[in-house]
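Cross-posting from the modeling subforum.

Setting up a comparison between two proteins and wanted a second pair of eyes on the formatting. Protein 1 (sequence, then structure tokens):
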Amino acid sequence: MPKAYEEIADDIRRSIREAERGPGEQLPSETELAKTYRRSVPTVQNALRLLVAEGLIDKQHGRGTFVRRPRTPAVRDNRRHQWEKDRARQSFVRRAETGATEHDTGLEPNDLVFHAKYCEIRASRELAQAFGVPEGTALVERTYRTRHTAETAPFSLVTSRLVRDMIAANPDLLDDSKEPWPGGTQHQLHTVGIEVGRIEERFTARPPTPEEAKQLELPTGTSVILLHKTSYDTQDRVVDITDVTLPGDRTELCFTTRLERW
């Protein structure tokens, strides 16, 4: 038999899903809800905590409780890598028409706000081993944040690392003012004669750190998906190592594997 707070949560959940309460609409106060459901305020509070954890409502300090506006979902399909490679040799105009985030979300370039920051770092032992270079080798570390113009949280937290000497032949690849770069990393590497031959992706999941939860505006109880991506050139040399933190409440991972016919 459901508990009292679960029954209250069920009714509010139903009202949201059936559009009786719209995105951004304020719920009655906890005292008013207690009167409506003829339950105690602590029981109502337990119901609201459950709905906050599900990402259906937001409690805003000093303002009240509101129906959470649904966030733009992103579907990350592993076929995106071939799509990006195909674009790497296209004209600037074709490359500028769309990008990876638009591919994942269905949005248009004008729907997005993009930010990139580059800095030079020294390769840690782990990164040096992965790239096959001496520890302390100069790397270019790039961080990317892209969000919908109507939202305040980015779709993901992205950190990419390249060996500086590997890309230094094109000074533009060391300059974050050249971002956003039509065609992305695969085209950037193409400008210095590097062709990506394969990409390896490893996924794990865990609870977010406080900083990740803040940046991604995650509902309580929402996990993050961690993507560690390694790109190899056609000589099997590591050319890019990227770590992506994806919010579990708006990210879908889609894997398509084509099988050879018998």
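Protein 2 (same layout):
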Amino acid sequence: MPGATLPHVRDHNSALVLDLVRRGGAISRVELAAQSGLTAQAITKIVNRLLADGLVTEAGRVGSTGGKPRTLLRLDPGARYAVGVHLDRDDTTVVLTDLTARKVIRRHVPHGMTSGPSGTLDRIGGEVRAVLADIADATRLVGVGIACPGPLDHTTGVLHRVTGLPAWDGFALGAAAADRLGVPVTVDKDTNAAAIGETLSSPDTPATFAYLYHGQGIGAGLVLGGRVYRGRRTNAGEFGHQVIDLNGPPCRCGNRGCLEALCRAALDAGDPARAAQLVGVAAANLVHLLDVDHIVLGGPVVLAAAEQYTREVTTTINALLPEPDWQRVTVTLAADRTDTIATGAAALALAPLFNTSTSDDGADRAA
């Protein structure tokens, strides 16, 4: 599967302009110059290259307060595509998105990481090829993003001691998948991809929030000031392995009393309300630590009892905050209840086009 070659978009200024077009929806050259700080001449050259590459297109004209009408520019959604893979323990979801990260095709298979690296890579390869079958020109594929449970190193694509999956410890998923697929591959934690997917699905999402995922594991995606925070080792958000009870049940990670182990015990006992309360306790800790005021809940455990889960988490957080009226926290459900992570993974593959790839501090722009 040949990948697209985009020599004109790899320089900083072109990516900056392309990102401004993406964010603006429909924007003029004059506005691009004003927002980018580039000269009108530089904007003209860059826009001409983007038009030639087919990444942007002219979208009519708008009146001006003086002079001739301005021509608006917008992204051409079908100019490029990306594939997002949500690789979970027991199942895999693959989506194809256009240049705007809008979902075009979706495939789901009931097999995941438990089958081991080799079998899983074979399956991913087959599913990626299947979603690409409907694209007339496969060279428009920018790359593939894979989102999976951590801990992992986002910069190298290497997994580290994924709880309950020892076969993946130290596995270079990014390099192996890129070699298998023949396209650039970006690997990130599922919760980071979920946070990115949430900003795409719900543009009104605040610039600072936490995405709490409760499925086969529990994790958090942190968006601080409009950027995904990954930490120095790109492994922030191991929310499920904070110790809540030193004398609690053993966790698959090797510790005792982790949030994930306590929630699993509650769910095994048929008490989802207790699991939600425990997540609320951990969420209150997060509020104390980072002063976030918006929390998004997602994942199959949440969605199986969405109203109850939201109510219990909200009530628990408010009960544990010393001044709940001042430290008001909103708790909402994920906007896209099925494919947030897969869509966010596709956005990871698109990020280099818009100069939103990982910076030295381990943070990405969320959308």
